[in-house]
Amino acid sequence: MPIIRITKEFRFEGAHALTGYDGKCRHIHGHSYIMYVTVKGEPVNDETSPKNGMLIDFSVLKRTVNEHIIDKFDHALLMKKGAPLSEEISSEYGNVIITDFQPTCENLVSYMAGLISSRLPEGISLCSIRLYETASSFAEWRAEDNI
Fold first, then answer.
1. Which residues pair with residue 38 across a beta bridge?
2. Residues 91-135: pLDDT tens digits?
3. What are the residues whose beta carbons fall under 8 Å from the beta carbon of 145, sequence distance 6 or more?
4. Can 25 be counted among the known catalytic residues?
5. Given 31, 133, 140, 144, which residue is catalytic?
6. How many CB atoms are closer than 10 A to CB 71?
């Protein structure tokens, strides 16, 4: 069987602030994120299987990404550990995620790749994640670049 790639789109809302940044993004602000998750592998080659011809059921990919990314990051505020008022904000409001890294789009996409790559079914590997922060700006993580 050939190697096939499939992609699923996800959307979530989130906010962040970039500690010490010298532009507007130092302020707490939000984004309507769009994320494309691409996985690859060999489709099932078993005529007796109801999954014959499928790489992975889209619902399995959706459940995995929702559980480990979307459910946690949707409507969350992301702040770097040690950011001004991060402790006060996280104790007062729900769904505040304090990270060990600056919550840039680049760092987020790399972190998210780590969250789901090891949680995919056997024989399925994460190929790429493209995370749009705005309609015209995205960061992309590719497995081939991170070997």
1. 7, 128
2. 888 899 999 999 999 999 999 999 999 999 999 999 999 999 999
3. none
4. yes
5. 133
6. 11
Q: Is 133 a catalytic residue?
A: yes
Tell me: pLDDT of 18 over 90. yes
- Which residue matches tokens 């078993």? 46
Nearest Cα residue to 15 out of 84, 87, 76, 101: 76
From 25, 31, 87, 140, active-site residue = 25
Q: Kindly report, residue by residue over 41-93, the tens digit of the pLDDT.
A: 999 999 999 999 999 999 999 999 999 999 999 999 999 998 887 788 888 88
> CA-CA distance, 140 to 50, in Å (whole number)?
33
Q: Clarify whether 13 is annotated catalytic.
A: no
Name residue 14's beta-bridge partners: 31, 76
Per DSSP, the three-state class of 23 is coil
- Amino acid at residue number 82: G
| Rounded Cα–Cα distance for residues 71 and 39 (Å) | 20
Of 29, 75, 87, 144, which residue is the catalytic one? 75
